[in-house]
Amino acid sequence: MSSYLSDKRVAYALLIGGIVLAVFSILIDPLRDYDIYLAPSQIIALIAGIVIALAGAYLAFMYKPPAE
Asked: How many separate domains does the chain show?
C-alpha cells in the first residue's frame, strides 16, 4: 500500500482528477445552455472533487514515505 502512496503519478492523477471533477460539476449547466443551478448531485460531485484534489495535493507535496 505504501508503494502506491509514494508513487507521484498516483498523487498527480488524484490531483488532476479531483480538479476536473470539481470544475466539470460547476460547468455542466452552462455547457448544456442552462442557467447555473447546482443540483444536489452536482454539489456531491463538487465536494468529492475537492476532497480528491486535496488528497492528491497532500500526497504529491506533503507526504514523505517512512524510511525503511
From this structure: 1
CA distance 62 to 11: 11
Say yes or no to pLDDT of 8 above 60: yes
User: Which residue range is the domain that position 36 belongs to?
Assistant: 2-61
pTM of the model: 0.81
Residues 25/30/31/37 CA torsion (nearest 10 deg): 40
Q: What is the mean pLDDT of residues 2-31?
A: 87
Quickly count helices (H) and strands (E) in the chain.
3, 0
* Backbone dihedral angles phi then psi of residue 47, each to the nearest 5 degrees: -65, -45
